[in-house]
Amino acid sequence: MKKSIIALTATIAILFSTNNIQASTPNSELTTIEIADAQLQNVYDAYFTVKDALIKSDSKLTSAKAAALLTAITAVKMDKLKSNEHTVWMKVVKKLTSDAKSISSTTDLKKQRETFKSLSKSTYDLIKVSSPEQPIYKQYCPMADADWLSKEKAVKNPYYGSSMLTCGNVVETIK
């Protein structure tokens, strides 16, 4: 009888510890919405690295960052996007891809900056229908007659770099 009680107690202890381990294990599965948000966030983050490279007037870095952007664009699984994002994605994906390829395939800073105008327009159209994790600032430079997107409110102009770093202003906040 004593051995049966000990065995039963050990069995109950093992069951409780197994249940506690299972209960404390975080769910590693991502929901479809989280996957969609992460996909587009990767595209946005890559866009911002291209912009930052242009601010530094570093054409080789800009080319490399545009190649990373191209990778992020091609990794997007359209069927995982929300319907409003999917609609805009279908409209801008060819232009986004073309612009990222164009920027990545040249080290001519002037050409990169010219193509960045179009890249910014397509990215703006897409981010406008998304729910960005943080406010995104649409900024405008009258000298370049062009917009760009930034995570920071402070203006750092990708079209002129250090020669006119603060030329421009915030024209819209996307939340």
TrEMBL record:
<dbReference type="Pfam" id="PF11827">
    <property type="entry name" value="DUF3347"/>
</dbReference>
<keyword id="KW-0732">Signal</keyword>
<dbReference type="InterPro" id="IPR021782">
    <property type="entry name" value="DUF3347"/>
</dbReference>
<feature type="domain" description="DUF3347">
    <location>
        <begin position="43"/>
        <end position="133"/>
    </location>
</feature>
<protein>
    <submittedName>
        <fullName>DUF3347 domain-containing protein</fullName>
    </submittedName>
</protein>
<feature type="signal peptide">
    <location>
        <begin position="1"/>
        <end position="23"/>
    </location>
</feature>
